[in-house]
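FAQ: What does the model actually see?

It sees only this:
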Amino acid sequence: MKRFATIALTALAPISWGSTYAVASELLPPDRPLFTGVMRALPAGLLLTTLSRTLPKGPWWWKSAVLGALNIGAFFPLLFLSAYRLPGGVAAVLGSAGPLFVVGLAALLLGERARARTVLAAVVGAFGVSMVVLTAQAELDLVGIVAGVVSSVSMAAGTVMTKRWGRPEGVGPLAMTGWQLTAGGLIIIPVAALVEGAPPALDGRAFLGYGYMMLINTGIAYWLWFRGIGRLSATSVTLLSPMSPLTAAVIGWAALGQSLSPVQLAGMAIAFGATVAGQLTLAAPRSPEKETFSSTEETDRNISMDLTDRPVRG
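And it is asked to produce this:
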């Protein structure tokens, strides 16, 4: 039960990310995706680092920079470039291929066995997402496709390396999340300045949107994501990714007046079913030498690390 509770909490991260399009289109300045990336990552990273009262030490300065680049600094700009060069459906399908990259990298770098059922769940999940978001009028663009694929590889590599390196002794996921978001935000700043120029003027709606992006969509969501990576296998975490485009489709229908066809509804059922099946497959009993989940001692240590990451009281 503890494992499935962890899965449920981790799933809140991609569910939150599914609200990004609706918030950006309704509240934020148009055509400023890189500035939005900075506003999502950097303030949240500084806030979480302050709350954790912990800075990197020794090799964790460069490790945090590498993880921040993979998970945030490279991922955000490439994702936005893909979204601008491709129809949203094509970009979403490329993103849904991320679990397949994680399965391969996890087998290579973590020794996690790539089960046929796990690969099948990832493929079926991507197929279900394509039914939801892909249209017959979708046009392809080579630069957009390359950017979309590389963004998926970047996030997959960041997920696997976060699992591989773990956390330094005495440091919880709150601090690790803060370090990565701060590093990623700093990496995006010069790119945003070069491509988009000076920051735009912000009104009350924009402040509300960026506040949500910073606190909920990024700060809490990425903390839950990295917390999940620390307690589950990398493959188990990444198989939750289809929840993001599925949530975006539901929000578009419920809040933005967008319609859902029978084919899209069927795709949602397929993608959700594949997500659940993937978790059940990974929960199947394994022999002791193949066990990839945390031991009881490690789990207790992780919980204690969470408790040390309580916010500073005012």
